[in-house]
Amino acid sequence: MKIVVYGAGVMAQYVKESIINSKNEFVGFVDPLGKGDFVNLKGENSNVEYDAIIDFSHFSLIDDVLEAGIAKKVPVLVATTGHTEEQLKKIEKAAELIPVIKATNTSLGVNIVNEIVAFATKLLKDFDIEIVEKHHNRKIDAPSGTASTLLEIVKENLNDGNDYRTVYGREGYSKRAEKEIGVHAIRGGNIVGEHTVIYAKNDEIIEIKHEALSRKMFSDGAVKAIEFLSGKNAGKYTMRDVLGINK
Ligand SMILES: NC(=O)C1=CN([C@@H]2O[C@H](COP(=O)(O)OP(=O)(O)OC[C@H]3O[C@@H](n4cnc5c(N)ncnc54)[C@H](OP(=O)(O)O)[C@@H]3O)[C@@H](O)[C@H]2O)C=CC1
Ligand SMILES: O=C(O)C1=N[C@H](C(=O)O)C[C@H](O)C1
């Protein structure tokens, strides 16, 4: 496949390497801010040949990313995080026309952790549940996309998940309510990414944790995901589909 990468940051470079080390062809980066030596999918250079798009850029670029996918009817992996509800709906809508994966985390490990958390939450309903994520100081969105996905999974697996209130960080004076899930974002240095779901009860604590030690597994996972989408019908697919994780 000829793959275009949206983004020009740290992850985009890793994805380029993963594409080069696969059987696919790296076409170029699409620079979010339009500077530097990048491919231009619009205007006079709109004859750039590509048959897949991987997006690790900025959430504000989602319209461009989806437009480029729809224009050529090629699969799109949206690995960028931080989208608004409205933007997420646009991604759903695009999936009516082209094959799309929206993945907040493309590592194998986190996708397995998602399964473990679903299972654990069913068994640990009466524990206090808190989610903690840690990332580098360049990260702009909080909580992380992965933490938001973990929160969704926790809520889905509590009988009365919709009755729970999400508390983002804490300050001031008040006891923890019974039906509350705390979500906490730590930022510092060059932490690649760490996610922990804590289940606490009087006298016992269970922690389910994933720690990323490099970014390579994100980019390798992204290439695997776009390869999976090749030749698929329009629709919304997931990393569970890519990794063959059955319900
Ligand atoms: N799904 C997954 O597994 C993973 C997802 N991610 C996500 O991928 C995305 C990119 O991460 P990363 O490479 O670390 O981030 P970087 O900050 O290194 O790169 C982001 C890119 O977006 C550009 N950008 C920044 N601000 C704006 C803006 N306001 N408008 C348009 N473009 C902008 C940057 O340009 P410039 O360099 O000029 O600032 C850069 O090209 C993030 O959303 C992150 O959460 C990251 C890792 C794994
Ligand atoms: O910005 C990052 O770096 C990461 N972002 C993703 C997220 O928001 O969950 C995935 C990973 O944790 C790294």
From TrEMBL:
Domain Dihydrodipicolinate reductase N-terminal: 1-105
Keyword vocabulary terms for this entry: Amino-acid biosynthesis, Cytoplasm, Diaminopimelate biosynthesis, Lysine biosynthesis, NAD, NADP, Oxidoreductase
Pfam families: DapB_C, DapB_N
Cellular-component GO terms for this entry: cytosol
Pathway: Amino-acid biosynthesis; L-lysine biosynthesis via DAP pathway; (S)-tetrahydrodipicolinate from L-aspartate: step 4/4
Assigned EC number: 1.17.1.8
Domain Dihydrodipicolinate reductase C-terminal stretches: 109-243
InterPro entries for the chain: DapB_C (IPR022663), DapB_N (IPR000846), DapB_N_CS (IPR022664), DHDPR_bac (IPR023940), NAD(P)-bd_dom_sf (IPR036291)
Highest taxon above the source species: Bacteria
Transmembrane segments: none
Binding residues for NAD(+): D31, A79, T80, T81, A103, T104, N105, T106
HAMAP family for the chain: DapB (MF_00102)
Function: Catalyzes the conversion of 4-hydroxy-tetrahydrodipicolinate (HTPA) to tetrahydrodipicolinate.
Subunit structure: Homotetramer.
Family recorded in the similarity comment: Belongs to the DapB family.
PANTHER family documented for this protein: 4-HYDROXY-TETRAHYDRODIPICOLINATE REDUCTASE, DIHYDRODIPICOLINATE REDUCTASE
Protein name: 4-hydroxy-tetrahydrodipicolinate reductase
Species, as recorded: Leptotrichia rugosa
The organism's taxonomic lineage, starting at the top: Bacteria, Fusobacteriati, Fusobacteriota, Fusobacteriia, Fusobacteriales
Name of encoding gene: dapB
